[in-house]
């Protein structure tokens, strides 16, 4: 990773102010005009700022940007950017369009107020011209505000907004540089970035999905999500009030067993939910970062291939920093506000009950189990068959120490852990690594082990071949 020279917000704002080609407007809602303030205080703002806007009143906001169901939303941000950019260019393009690189910065934020706690977050973005007369490029970002005081949240928003504008003009040479610059003078204890989308000529060399991966890789977020079409989405909006069935794995490639586990896990989960919640289930294929770097480093092409293969079967994907089941379970429960279940294999269950995994916790494995099962998380165990054996292994085959066995019995007796009964034994010994081995050996029978659309994706992109 190359050295990164970090400028202060004032230095960044001043650099922009002194560039006679950069000229634009600001529209900020929900946390003051903290971004524009930096440019005014840096000096020379008259050469940069055409106007600033802050429509707090809902009627005024609707009159300017159109009606919306939610004022702190991606939809509202995009309407702000579109309206402000259009106004700016219509009024100023004739006079200074040949020499100016126009921009419109906007944010819509829920910050801490006088009335108790809440979910402090916001959408922030920019439309800008990299070169005069060029079609505008766009960045849309969702952030979570973690400071516990309004003043600190405002400061963080101001710094982040300056970083965003500056990064678009001075740090878009690479994805790594662009993402790191967004968090200059900030930490992940103040702000998390959990969704980023870019479009336009300034980002022809970038991919939303790889930018999102950079966020996780740099610990700027815990989770990123792709919907069933492979598009970057803001996960808390997608998962809110959904009952979740998650399958953890490498999905290199996704197999018939993977799909069977999610399907059968969801069916059994549905039978354990209240009748009015039975259809409100989302399945997730989750890949932890340690799975992406298990071969030494992150391979961008390999990562994109996994996303493409999973979305070819319309499967939403979650990428997370969580190594252990209990931390992922706790996170998902907080986000979805409903029930969480895992489809797992026997060796996963063995790993969950391995005390060594929790030796760094103050409360040891009891703390981990309390975190995991305290919100009624369930585990549905799919039978497992060893490579060269016919016998199917279920949850009762897990090897446990004497003092842990009663815990397993408790969780099974209270239906926290259940064996999947309606299963297909013909797919029980399909492993992704065996599929890859067959592909490398030129054995075409691998196609019988994966969904048809995955097989097509593998062949089309010539994946997993050693030569």
UniProtKB/TrEMBL annotation:
It comes from the Bacteria. GO terms for molecular function: nucleotidyltransferase activity. InterPro entries: Rossmann-like_a/b/a_fold. Keywords: Nucleotidyltransferase, Transferase. The keyword Nucleotidyltransferase applies. This is Nicotinate-nucleotide adenylyltransferase. It comes from Prosthecochloris marina.
């Amino acid at each position: 990773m190359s050295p990164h020279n970090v400028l202060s917000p004032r230095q960044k704002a001043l650099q922009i102010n002194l560039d006679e080609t950069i000229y634009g407007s600001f529209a900020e809602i929900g946390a003051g005009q903290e971004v524009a303030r930096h440019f005014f205080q840096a000096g020379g703002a008259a050469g940069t700022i055409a106007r600033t806007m802050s429509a707090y009143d809902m009627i005024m906001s609707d009159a300017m940007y159109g009606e919306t169901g939610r004022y702190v939303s991606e939809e509202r941000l995009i309407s702000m950017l579109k309206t402000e950019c259009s106004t700016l260019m219509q009024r100023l393009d004739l006079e200074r369009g040949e020499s100016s690189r126009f921009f419109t910065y906007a944010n819509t934020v829920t910050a801490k107020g006088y009335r108790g706690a809440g979910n402090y977050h916001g959408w922030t973005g920019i439309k800008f011209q990299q070169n005069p007369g060029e079609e505008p490029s766009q960045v849309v970002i969702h952030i979570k505000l973690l400071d516990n005081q309004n003043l600190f949240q405002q400061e963080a928003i101001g710094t982040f907004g300056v970083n965003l504008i500056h990064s678009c003009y001075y740090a878009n040479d690479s994805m790594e540089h662009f993402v790191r610059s967004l968090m200059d003078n900030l930490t992940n204890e103040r702000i998390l970035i959990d969704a980023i989308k870019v479009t336009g000529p300034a980002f022809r060399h970038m991919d939303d999905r790889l930018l999102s991966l950079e966020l996780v890789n740099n610990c700027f977020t815990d989770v990123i999500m792709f919907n069933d079409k492979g598009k970057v989405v803001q996960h808390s909006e997608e998962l809110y009030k959904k009952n979740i069935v998650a399958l953890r794995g490498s999905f290199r490639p996704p197999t018939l067993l993977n799909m069977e586990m999610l399907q059968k896990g969801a069916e059994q989960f549905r039978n354990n939910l209240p009748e009015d919640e039975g259809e409100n289930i989302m399945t997730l294929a989750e890949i932890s970062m340690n799975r992406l770097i298990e071969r030494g480093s992150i391979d961008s092409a390999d990562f994109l291939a996994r996303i493409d293969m999973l979305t070819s079967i319309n499967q939403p994907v979650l990428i997370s920093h969580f190594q252990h089941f209990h931390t992922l379970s706790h996170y998902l429960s907080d986000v979805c506000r409903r029930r969480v279940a895992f489809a797992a294999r026997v060796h996963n269950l063995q790993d969950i009950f391995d005390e060594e995994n929790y030796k760094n916790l103050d409360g040891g494995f009891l703390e981990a189990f309390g975190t995991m099962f305290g919100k009624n998380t369930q585990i549905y165990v799919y039978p497992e068959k060893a490579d060269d054996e016919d016998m199917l292994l279920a949850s009762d085959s897990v090897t446990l120490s004497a003092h842990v066995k009663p815990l397993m019995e408790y969780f099974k007796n209270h239906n926290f852990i259940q064996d999947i009964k309606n299963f297909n034994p013909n797919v029980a010994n399909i492993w992704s690594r065996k599929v890859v081995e067959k592909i490398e050996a030129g054995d075409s029978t691998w196609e019988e082990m994966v969904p048809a659309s995955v097989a097509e994706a593998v062949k089309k992109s010539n994946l997993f071949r050693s030569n």
